[in-house]
Design brief:
mainly alpha; about 80% helix; single chain
Length: about 120
């Protein structure tokens, strides 16, 4: 397995574990106000990172070079900023971080599309 595939998979597992623990914590205290942040962490952080990791594993030639590394870092920064920004917005703060994180995540997805197109055949 390539380094980038393993990095995506392990990060996705980490996001899901954190998301699960966060969900348990919300249930234990009876406050589900951060449910949107929790959902973004699980879906965008966990599920997408696992899909990305499986793609890089199944298409090993795509796991080489600048694009896959840039994709990883953009994705990671995007998820962290988006989830933190969403949590901050729900807590009554300004929504700027959530928007910034969303656009970084969008850029990461566009870059992934470029990787897929480059290695489609």
């Amino acid at each position: 397995m390539s380094r980038i595939a393993l990095r995506f998979l392990l990060t996705g597992i980490g996001f899901l574990l954190f998301g699960m623990l966060w969900g348990i914590q919300m249930g234990m205290i009876g406050d589900h106000s951060q449910m949107p942040s929790h959902a973004h962490l699980n879906l965008v952080g966990g599920v997408l990172f696992l899909i990305f990791g499986l793609f890089y594993h199944c298409v090993p030639e795509s796991a080489l070079g600048f694009y896959c590394r840039a994709h990883y870092w953009l994705s990671l920064i995007g998820v962290v900023v988006m989830v933190a920004g969403t949590a901050h917005t729900i807590a009554g703060g300004h929504h700027g971080l959530a928007i910034l994180g969303s656009f970084i995540t969008l850029a990461a997805m566009v870059l992934f599309g470029v990787v897929v197109i480059r290695h489609r055949g």
